[in-house]
Structures are given as structure tokens and as C-alpha cells.
Design a protein that fits this description.
By secondary structure, this protein is mainly α. It contains six helices and no strands. The protein has one domain. Helix 1 runs antiparallel to helix 2, helix 1 packs antiparallel against helix 6 and helix 5 packs antiparallel against helix 6. The protein starts with a helix and ends with a helix.
């Protein structure tokens, strides 16, 4: 049974890493489940402090994933139109069949939103770049947390078999 739980945990980690790139999957949350599965093994007991601390980090990172791109737009001089455009662009990018829709969508959404609000294209492009930078930062944050969870999982799983 322990082997099956560890294999399932590895699958959750892999899905978590993929989910950091594809926003359809909640990457860090999936990776967190690998720690829970590890706790269910007979040979290892993950501390409840580690489970709850990592859960809190994962929830915060998941929430920030929705906030950071909009904050990037605002930080680079975007208006509410740019923030709304980036959000709408992200949603469209999730379902659009274009490659890298989750990157292009928020950028174009912020750009279009700012062009609707203002006539200056340089301000609109700057706000759209803020959205792109926010998305890249958010993705990096999710990936860092997911890789750390993978490190914890594999470090503990190796101890089970030693």
C-alpha cells in the first residue's frame, strides 16, 4: 500500500509542476496532496505542523496567482480598464486554442483595456508589460513552492525505503 501511495504522490507532484505552467491545474495544491499521501503511509508520519504550514503557503500562493498579474498591470501605470482587461484576457487565454494563450491573453487584454481607456499607446504597452511581468513572477512563485514540496516529498520518501 505504501508503494501505491508514493506512486500516486509522484503523479500529484508531476501534475503540480505541469499546473504551474497551465493555469487550468492548481499546481501547488496538487503537489501539496503528495505530502498528505505520504502521511497516509504506514512507514512515515508527516508532522501536522508541516502539513498545515505548507497548506497555508499553498493557499496564499494560489490566491496571489490571481492577484499578481493585475497588480503588475496597476504597478506599471495601468488603470482599472487594464486590470479588467488582463483578467478577461487570462480567462480567454485559458480556453483559446492559441499557443501560450495564458501569456498572450493577459497581455493583449491589458493592452486593449488601456487602449479603450486612453489613447496613448505607450502607456497601454507599459501596462500590458506589467501584466506579463506579473504573470511570469506568479508562475515562478508557484513553481518554486511546488518544487520545494517535491523536495520535501522525495526527501521523506527516500527515508521510507532506507
Amino acid at each position: 500500500m505504501d508503494i501505491a501511495l508514493i506512486i500516486l504522490g509522484i503523479i500529484f507532484i508531476l501534475l503540480g509542476i505541469i499546473g504551474c505552467i497551465l493555469p487550468v491545474l492548481p499546481g501547488p495544491i496538487l503537489a501539496w496532496f503528495s505530502l498528505l499521501l505520504l502521511d497516509w503511509t504506514d512507514r512515515f508520519d508527516v508532522s501536522s505542523e508541516l502539513i498545515w504550514t505548507t497548506f497555508g503557503v499553498v493557499v496564499v500562493v494560489h490566491a496571489l496567482d490571481f492577484i499578481i498579474p493585475a497588480l503588475g498591470t496597476k504597478k506599471f501605470g495601468g488603470s482599472k480598464y487594464g486590470v479588467y482587461g488582463a483578467t478577461i484576457g487570462l480567462l480567454i487565454g485559458l480556453i483559446a486554442p492559441i499557443p501560450f494563450g495564458v501569456i498572450v491573453g493577459p497581455f493583449l487584454g491589458a493592452l486593449i483595456g488601456e487602449l479603450i481607456k486612453q489613447q496613448k499607446s505607450d502607456v497601454a504597452i507599459k501596462a500590458a508589460m506589467g501584466s506579463l511581468i506579473g504573470f511570469v513572477f506568479s508562475t515562478g512563485l508557484k513553481l518554486a513552492v511546488t518544487l520545494y514540496l517535491a523536495y520535501i516529498f522525495f526527501n521523506q520518501a527516500i527515508q521510507i525505503f532506507s
